[in-house]
Amino acid sequence: MPANQKSTPSHDPVRARRQQIAKWTLMANRIGYLFFAIAIVSFVLAFAFGFNSTMSSIIIAALVVGSILLAPAIVLGYAVKAAERDDRERGL
Q1: Residues 73, 28 contacting (CB under 8 angstroms)
Q2: DSSP string, 34-92
């Protein structure tokens, strides 16, 4: 490929991989926040109707799964955005 020709994401394997990672992090973010919403709703229901071991388990499990999904997804999402911004600043 000539030096003056810009590569598109479909032809550049790094950008194609970056797009794939961005897609997966977006999905992980949505699912992670969904689990946090489940934890909040479960907590409100348990607060209103009384806590028991089942509700506590649901709340804890939802918080753990949401945290496991969100922690790497947020970091990778910022990394992808920073890499894309750096590419734009360099004119790549």
Answers
A1: yes
A2: HHHHHHHHHHHHHHHH---HHHHHHHHHHHHHHHHHHHHHHHHHHHHHHHHHHHHHHT-
Contacts of 5 (CB under 8 A, 6+ apart): none
Q: Looking at residue 1, what is its pLDDT?
A: 46
pTM of the model: 0.75
- Whole-number Å distance between alpha carbons of 65 and 70: 9
- Cβ–Cβ under 8 Å, residues 35 and 58: no
Q: Which two tokens stand for residue 54?
A: 């089942």
